[in-house]
What we know:
Elements: E1 2-6, H1 15-31, H2 44-53, H3 57-61, E2 67-69, E3 75-77, H4 93-99, H5 107-128, H6 130-151, H7 163-176, E4 181-188, E5 191-198, H8 199-219, H9 231-248, H10 251-261
Antiparallel strand pairs: 1-4, 2-3, 4-5
Helix pairs in contact: 1-5, 5-6, 5-7, 5-10, 6-7, 6-9, 7-9, 8-9
Amino acid sequence: MFPIRDNIPTDRFPVVTVAIIVLNVVAYLFWQKGGITLGDPSSPHYLHNLVDYGAIPYEITHPGNHCELASSGDVLCEGQSGVSGAAETQPSTWLTLFTSMFMHGGLLHLGGNMLFLWIFGNNVEDAMGPVKFVIFYLLAGLAATAGQVIVDPSATVPGIGASGAIAGVLGGYLLLFPRARVVTVVFIIFFFTILELPALFFLVVWFAQQALFGYFDLLQPTGGGGGGVAYFAHIGGFVFGLALVKVFADEARRRRQLERAR
């Protein structure tokens, strides 16, 4: 399912949401140098940037031990069995917790995340105000990283993407606007149709998918965090959004949005 739009209007232009989208696009094209092809980027610059600035669970759970991309293509980390020598100068691990939120693994990854952020983020930002929304978004991203680290603290796969923080936005949206409706493209094998679905249904199904895929990921011999989609980051971000959105949102703003949607 892919959302197209919702029926909740905004009182103010979503400055922060747009700024985050612009930052993600600029970071991917000009900092990561990911290019505009639909396949996964594989240039040396992109891969080294990924390891340097992505959030690697091993680095987080082993403070002071950094990881780097070996000539073999493997990610090797200080302190691992059989690894000797010091890694090249690396950015602070704490910095990567934030830089990883603005990095992506391909054009489709970037586009999908930004679509979700635009549709659901503008309303959540409007309910919170720009300053609170920035704080909420970043904390959701940190909660998402924590969720993935808890599942596999020794993983050396760099975690990247805005989806964890956006999952927090989705969780917040679910509590703020449970009766909203979302125009959605629904794919059925080789066909698709466009339906207007309750936001409650859309977001509960989305979360159930993350939980189910995360469970299957744990059943793999390598455990969770073995690459691919970081489902537990999505779960961590979503749960954060559910738990704390009411702390950040302004009830009067939310009611105005709902009144305008009628």
